[in-house]
Amino acid sequence: MAEPIYRRVIVKVSGEALMGPDGASIHQPTLTRIAADLVAAQALGVSIAIVAGGGNIVRGVQVSEKGIPRVTADLMGMLATAMNALALETAIEAAGHTARTMSAVTMPEICETYERRRALRHLEKNRMLVLAGGTGNPFFTTDTTAVLRAAELGAQAVLKATDVDGVYSADPKKDKNAVRYDRLTHQEAIERNLKVMDATAFALARENRMPIIVFSIRESQAIEMVLRGRGHATVVSS
Ligand code: GTP
To answer: How far is the CA of 210 from the centre of ligand 1 (A)?
Structure first.
């Protein structure tokens, strides 16, 4: 098998990725499988920080459409990411690897506060890092967080774990004529208004020449395959 092509990556695990067929916010077998995939990927010698999404519990934009102001809705979403981060930390440790949760929003009774130097120390000590609270600001997505942390922590790529096997011209669940891309530039993703990530995340990635690899977490060993450059994925790069 090919050696991993990255030494350090950020894996964005969306909240929806943790849901199962029963509609529960966190589906335990799915959580356990994702944790096992992450631990197997780290065993290749790749240092991994996970950015937890929160959409399985609260999605800021949708809550704001129902009457709660966007700022408050986004703060609720940030709390949702902390719940998923704790679930991921616990599952990773149950799978046999040390993990540390750090939050961009201070909540010392629950987890450590994100601090770049300390985050780097955890990674250097081969701990898996789980990042909660987004950027700590409303109006920014956890996709933007993933690109930001990748740039700050010296990662070579963002692995965006989703429900689908790459980037499509339209939502493949709604449009059967949607075309799948193997490769795209950040610029093309922005110009074509591809919804897989928000424009802020793509713009930050373009500025930092940060590749984003979009793949389906539903396939087993998906993370490992992407790290070996063999995954069924779309690569968005400069
Ligand atoms: P090193 O200093 O690198 O050895 O890291 P460490 O994480 O093993 O040591 P530390 O003594 O800082 O932390 C021990 C445990 O307490 C770890 O599980 C940390 O995640 C946790 N911890 C550290 N700071 C905080 C905090 O502010 N809040 C909470 N809830 N836990 C914390």
So the answer is: 30
Q: What digits encode the pLDDT tens for the residues 32-81?
A: 999 999 999 999 999 999 999 999 999 877 887 888 999 999 999 999 99
Indicate if ligand 1 lies below 6 Å from the C-beta of 121. Answer: yes
Pocket lining: 192 vs ligand 1, CB cutoff 6 Å: no
Task: For the chain, list the domains and their CATH numbers.
Answer: 8-237 (3.40.1160.10)
Output the CA torsion sign for 172, 177, 178, 183.
positive
Q: pLDDT tens-digit profile of 138-164? A: 999 999 999 999 999 999 999 999 988
CA of residue 124 to ligand 1 center, whole Å: 15
Nearest 5°: phi and psi at 130? -120, 120
pTM listed for this prediction:
0.95
Residue 112 near ligand 1, beta carbon < 6 Å: yes
Q: Which of 225, 235, 228 is nearest to 37 (CA)?
A: 225
